[in-house]
Design goal:
Jelly Rolls; eight-stranded antiparallel beta sheet; globular; about 35% strand; mainly beta; 3 domains
Length: about 650
């Protein structure tokens, strides 16, 4: 298997040499968001036309939907640039559809050939030669990257083609498209590929280092995991990390590759047999936390846990507490925790019980700089933390093992599946852990709920039992974490999520009024969904506080959009979040509403309604300015 050369970054100007066509859905100069023309960023020539394909946004990635039966993005047949017989290169980021019922064409030249095509009835990547009506198989199966973003590259001439996925060579064929003209991208009649985001065509052969450089430059747009301070990163579902054989490549750039023993690969993970399977990484100073912070992340699915404890990942010199450095472990009851040692003894985080046959993101965080804590997160949800008094973590000389206790020293073999493994030489924040979970959850059949991940276990129980649209009271810290995530993370859905955080009280008057101006107001636009709110009423009268109504809108009663309980006399600041719908079709979508409130009146839309009908706010006894804030989103996922 070819090692991935992360350390070599080619100068950007070199990658423009020979670049003839550059199309990019993420660049407004190439596609402004509407119309059927995709503009070539290299020149005024070779603009492309969308045919039976459309612009969309997936997970925040702007792209073209080429899933339709006749979808393609093309120039007029015969009008495109000629691919030189001496060499050419195509590069594109695409998300291939999973169905193999049809051929899946990524590029088509005229009058002959498909430089990149996936065979009908299977998932084999290769080249279709129209002259001989033959499929040339590269030997690479795309199953592991289906429905995932990946960089596809083909370097060819008139008689050969070399295929690369995410900068790694995956196969060759003795056919090429040299001498044809470029025609279409993203599909062909009856041969839709899926989603495509950008396309680069060069009239020369790019080297491996140049292809790698392009991957390094573009991948942050498509792979939104935390990259800073990575010590080790394995992803069996990424061809850059694993294709076949007994080695898994480290994607961190530190070359801490792993050796596989008795594991089998099944998309998207490795299977561990519970008796002899493991991955070992040779001892290295980069795997020693010393006095610093440390984070371990592993995606795991236990087939069995009873009968023995299991090591998910660990580094130790022996079986005593004083031998242990760090690791994620699971007891015979499924209780999972982070354990760290200082050379004399060990300490653990709080534990969480995992079920079998279920995927989990397990993250252990050792903080030794800003604080002294050992914390555990499951699926981006904070389980808890314990304090420690360690000055450092033990420096061990044994290898790091995934799936075994020190290479089998004790029978604590993992029985199940392991996917992504990451180690960071820093303490990931809750937001960063949520970022990784959001990036990877779909690979393992999980969904991301930005609100739920920030709640305590007890609050999650309440949240799970609550009906859609219910309000859950949270702390100010939880509220701020949630608002930070939903306004800062990559948004999911088929359109750009519009997140709005709005303070609704005017602070320049006393009493404080709802909105601003001579007719105080604010507006919730059609389709907006209120997901979080701060309620605060420093009111002289007792009563409940809610954002509600006293009348109808266009003859139709509109339900209260705020929690029905709030601060009583004397006031106080309360924080609420709202349970998100599970499907966009079930959302509560409001018509365009202008909510106006004159001081001391309750006509039409009221602000915070109190029992005596008062709507005035005054400075709190401690001088604090009252605050009313809502957070809205135009999509159900974030």
């Amino acid at each position: 298997m070819i090692a991935f050369p992360f350390s070599f970054i080619k100068n950007a100007s070199t990658l423009n040499e020979g670049l003839v066509i550059k199309l990019d859905a993420n660049d407004a100069s190439s596609y402004p968001g509407s119309g059927t023309t995709v503009f070539n960023l290299q020149s005024g020539s070779y603009n492309h036309t969308l045919s039976n394909s459309s612009y969309t946004v997936l997970n925040g990635i702007k792209c073209f939907d080429c899933n339709g039966a006749s979808a393609l993005i093309s120039v007029t047949q015969g009008s495109g640039p000629t691919l030189p017989n001496t060499g050419y290169t195509y590069i594109t980021w695409a998300r291939i559809k999973t169905s193999s019922a049809d051929y899946r064409t990524l590029f088509r030249t005229w009058p002959s050939d498909h430089p990149i095509l996936v065979q009908v009835g299977n998932d084999n990547l290769g080249f279709w030669d129209n002259n001989t009506t033959a499929f040339a198989d590269s030997g690479y199966d795309v199953t592991q990257i289906e429905d995932s973003w990946a960089q596809y590259t083909v370097v060819g001439d008139s008689s050969s083609s070399i295929f690369y996925i995410n900068g790694v060579q995956v196969g060759t064929v003795s056919y090429g498209a040299g001498g044809n003209t470029h025609w279409a991208w993203g599909g062909l009649g009856g041969q839709p590929f899926g989603y495509v985001a950008n396309m680069y065509y060069y009239d020369r052969k790019l080297s491996l280092s140049e292809i790698t450089s392009q991957y390094n430059t573009l991948s942050p747009t498509f792979l939104n995991y935390v990259r800073s301070n990575l010590a080790l990163y394995f992803d069996p579902n990424n061809p850059s990390s694993y294709v076949s054989g007994s080695t898994i490549n480290d994607l961190s750039g530190n070359s801490l590759n792993g050796s596989l023993s008795n594991t089998t690969y099944t998309t998207p993970s490795f299977d561990f047999n519970g008796s002899s399977s493991q991955i070992s990484v040779a001892d290295n100073s980069l795997l020693e936390p010393s006095t610093g912070d440390w984070t371990i992340e592993a995606w795991v699915n236990h087939t069995a846990v009873s009968g023995s404890s299991r090591v998910i990942i660990g580094k130790t010199d022996g079986g005593n507490a004083g031998d242990w450095a760090y690791g994620l472990r699971t007891s015979s009851t499924g209780s999972t925790f982070l354990e760290v040692g200082n050379g004399s003894t060990s300490a653990t985080s709080p534990a969480s019980t995992l079920s079998i046959n279920t995927w989990y993101q397990v993250v252990g965080v050792f903080t030794n700089v800003a604080s002294n804590s050992i914390a555990l997160y499951i699926n981006a949800s904070f389980i808890g933390s314990n304090s420690h008094s360690f000055s450092s973590i033990k420096n061990t000389t044994s290898p790091l093992y995934i799936g075994s206790f020190n290479g089998g020293q004790f029978s604590q073999w993992l029985n199940g599946k392991v996917g992504i493994v990451r180690i960071y030489n820093k303490a990931l924040s809750r937001t960063e852990i949520a970022q990784n979970f959001q990036n990877d959850a779909s690979k393992y059949g999980l969904t991301y709920d930005a609100i739920r991940t920030q709640l305590t276990s007890a609050q999650q129980t309440t949240y799970d039992a609550a009906s859609i649209g219910s309000w859950i009271k949270v702390t100010s810290t939880e509220y701020n974490n949630i608002v930070s995530i939903v306004t800062g993370a990559t948004k999911k859905g088929n359109s750009d999520a519009q997140i709005a955080t709005r303070d609704l009280l005017t602070s320049g008057t006393n009493p404080y009024t709802f909105g601003s101006g001579s007719t105080p107001s604010f507006q919730i636009d059609q389709g907006e969904y209120v997901i979080a709110m701060i309620t605060e009423a420093w009111n002289s009268s007792s009563g409940q506080s809610q954002l509600g109504y006293t009348t109808t809108f266009k003859g139709t009663p509109i339900s209260n959009i705020g929690p029905t309980a709030g601060p009583s006399q004397g006031g106080g600041r309360d924080y609420y979040v709202r349970k998100a719908p599970t499907d966009v079709a079930t959302e509560t979508r409001y018509p365009t509403l202008s909510m106006t409130q004159s001081p001391n009146a309750v006509n039409g839309w009221a602000g915070f309604v109190t029992s005596n009908g008062g709507t005035s706010w005054s400075t709190a006894p401690n001088g604090q300015v009252p605050k009313i804030q809502i957070v809205t989103t135009s999509t159900k996922s974030w």
